[in-house]
Design a protein that fits this description.
Blueprint lengths: L1 E12 L12 E11 L2 H6 L8 H14 L5 H15 L4 E9 L7 E9 L5
Antiparallel strand pairs: 1-2, 2-3, 3-4
Helix pairs in contact: 2-3
């Protein structure tokens, strides 16, 4: 199974458990992989035969900016479920980072994988 990916997608959003976090936007960073079969698109040259990277990015932006979130975990889960359904992918991996969230740490975050892992 092939994979498409988006690396270092950055979106400003409201995420956090504390009141002060719920009052300000902060940058979030995403690396996203989706399993897909690219052979048809490779032969046809048609965007409709593959996963549209821009559509993936726009879907993630819409979820992230729609409303404030408290936990990265719930945000990542919602994104994974939506991407798997919208792009008919059997597997997705999401790395979701929150730069500068903890003093002295460049970035904190979560990595989730959902679905059937490509190759087994």
């Amino acid at each position: 199974m092939d994979r498409i990916y988006l690396k270092d997608l950055r979106i400003d959003a409201v995420v956090g458990v504390y009141d002060w976090e719920q009052r300000q936007q902060r940058p979030l960073r995403f690396d996203i992989e989706l399993a897909t079969d690219t052979r048809v698109a490779a032969h046809s040259g048609e965007i409709t035969d593959t996963v549209d990277y821009e559509a993936v990015a726009n879907t993630v932006r819409a979820i992230v900016t729609r409303e404030p979130h408290t936990l990265l975990e719930s945000l990542a889960e919602e994104i994974a479920e939506t991407l798997m359904t919208a792009f008919r992918t059997p597997w997705v991996r999401i790395d979701l980072g929150k730069p500068g969230a903890v003093a002295g740490v460049a970035e904190v975050g979560i990595r989730i994988e959902r679905g059937v892992h490509p190759g087994g």
